[in-house]
Please model this.
Amino acid sequence: MSSSHAQEIQLQTIIGVPELESGDGKDSKDGQKAPTRRTAKGSVRWWILVAADMLMVLCGGTVATLLIRLYYNSGGNSKWMSTLTQSGGAPLLLIPLLLAPPPTSGPGSGEGEEERRQPAPAASRLVAVYLGIGILIGFDNLMYAYALQYLPVSTFSLVAATQLAFNAVTSWLINSQRFTALIANSVVVLTFAAALLGVGSSSDGTSSSSDLPRGKYAAGFVLTLAASATFALILSLLELAFVKVVRARTLRWVLTVQMHTNLVASAVSVLGLFASGEWRTIPAEMAAFKDGRARYVLTLVGTAAAWQAALAGQVRLIARVSSLFANATGTVQLPLVPVFAVLLFGDKMTGIKAVAMLMAVWGFLSYVYQHYLDGRRAAAGKAAGAGAQFKCCVCAERTVDEASHA
Model:
């Protein structure tokens, strides 16, 4: 009796699982942790994967924002078509989904093994997630489409940074986000960057907004704020869905959730396109588009593909890190979009925008540094825990030997 108890203590002590970036660490049927080859949070490989996701968010978001502005500048005018491009590229996700590791792969195969071990989520709960979040995405995309038409692309991008402040609130309320001084500094600085631009918005003087009544400019500003708040809520709900419903954070599940929610959002956009009657204007809009019909199609297809690339990186960051970190990464494109807007659309790079960009970069670096510190503390804790486990295993072995001699 004493020997079996000592062996149980030894087994439980040896099985020490560090904090991992994929999966929720569910116990198996016998109560022991399932050993899978996953990347420890804060490790070099983990940061490389996070950096790759961040690059997808930055490149995809920048290209998509510039292309949709090109759509408007070249004669496009359909809000619902613009809205559809933000989610209509969802079928493209079938390609990486088919290439993702299958859940039937062998032991020790990482994410595929983790997915195979997880129980399948309830279909009814998944449908509720897909429908609820998908409908929110559809209406949020519509608000962004109107806002982009009413605001210069540089102003839109910087005002949209307020979504980080909204996300801080939703993350605290929904995801129990832990706030440190560095994270709070990041949120405050990025929010002030957007507020600073709002104060100086009258000095934009760009051709894209000079032809609009002042009320349109104000409407674009309000729509951007409302869309930012809704987007923050969507990100927090996605994080909650991965924790409570999906309970797995593999690439296959990230792509599956993204594809289904975007398909629902696309359905909302298509219904709006036909209900509003805008579908009747598409042939004439295509014919009058600058540089012809082929340019029209390529612009919309490119926009849809760029949005899906950005969303794939963002949803992966939600699953890998948190919704707040994913949102903060999105604000890093603030220094990129205005620079390209100056080169491509003739927007003016005012001093206020330059200061706001510097504040955005500083705010995000503050957040990244907090994760760096967390990674170092986690590594130190693992090292200390390994020493404690070794001592406990030695004690357990001694107990086993003593029991056997007795």
